[in-house]
Write a structure and sequence with these properties.
Elements: H1 2-14, E1 20-25, E2 30-35, H2 42-62, E3 67-72, H3 75-97, E4 101-102, H4 108-118, E5 124-129, E6 136-141
Parallel strand pairs: 2-3
Antiparallel strand pairs: 1-2, 4-6, 5-6
């Protein structure tokens, strides 16, 4: 893990970021990378994170690291919080209206968040439908 830590530290420094941290977990072969940079505007952030994540995952894969988590300016954390709020509100709406609520398309991680958050609610059930980029969560009330 020291080898990949050094490679990533050099890469991120060369990209011009000064305020970042890299946390490694040997036992789970997981990397957590947090970058703080106020110069990013949210429109640029999504594509940049996607590209950076791809590059870092390729480097990590060669070093035997299974999982990589990247968060820039807490963007990912804020997105997770938003998805959880949407899931809870949609679950309430499904119960009150006694009808299915179809959420917008989400990636696998985001869908997993919704399923996990709503799994404890005995009044609803969730399932994923659709294919590829159109895959989404459907929240159904239990009648």
């Amino acid at each position: 893990m020291d080898k990949i830590y050094q490679k990533l530290q050099t890469l991120i420094n060369l990209m011009g970021f000064n305020d970042f941290s890299i946390n490694t977990a040997e036992e789970s072969k997981r990397l957590n990378i947090f970058i703080n940079d106020v110069n990013f505007v949210s429109g640029q952030l999504s594509q940049f994170v996607s590209d950076l994540e791809y590059l870092i995952k390729m480097i990590a894969k060669k070093e035997g690291v299974d999982m990589v988590f990247i968060d820039i300016n807490n963007h990912r954390k804020e997105r997770e919080d938003l998805i959880i709020k949407l899931a809870k509100a949609s679950a309430k709406k499904a119960v009150v209206t006694k009808s299915e609520i179809v959420l917008p398309p989400m990636n696998a991680f985001e869908r997993r968040l919704v399923h996990a958050e709503l799994a404890v609610n005995p009044d609803i059930k969730t399932e994923s439908t659709g294919e590829g980029k159109e895959r989404r969560v459907v929240i159904k009330p239990i009648l």
